[in-house]
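User: Fold this; tokens only.

Assistant: Input:
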Amino acid sequence: MLGKKLFPPRKFPLDYKIVGRSNWFTLTSPAVKYIHDFLQHHPEVVRYFKFCWGADEFIFASVLYNSPYKDRIRDSLVYVDWTGKTDGHPRILEVGDFEKMKASGKLFGRKFDADTDARILEMLEESIRKQPS
């Protein structure tokens, strides 16, 4: 990246562990208040992330990971496969992923493309219809 060549490395302004997680998440009201208050009192953190790639995948996760909420963080309910060549995007899920997806316990999946493999979507719909009410 050109930015890495032009600008010196930056140091995070707090003694925090920086973590990244999906930007698809659910927060409790107290967690939202904690993040809001934290960012209001730490504009240097907002400034640091303002020029980062994927800031939305790091800022909230890092604030909560270094907070009293750390032990309440749970895994995402979205099945995502980052294996293979991803170029910054998850792999498109196909029929061969069906059993892994079912066994994962996840409620959602990402990333599908009907032009790549429409059958996986049909299999998922059929599996959902077979679930007891």
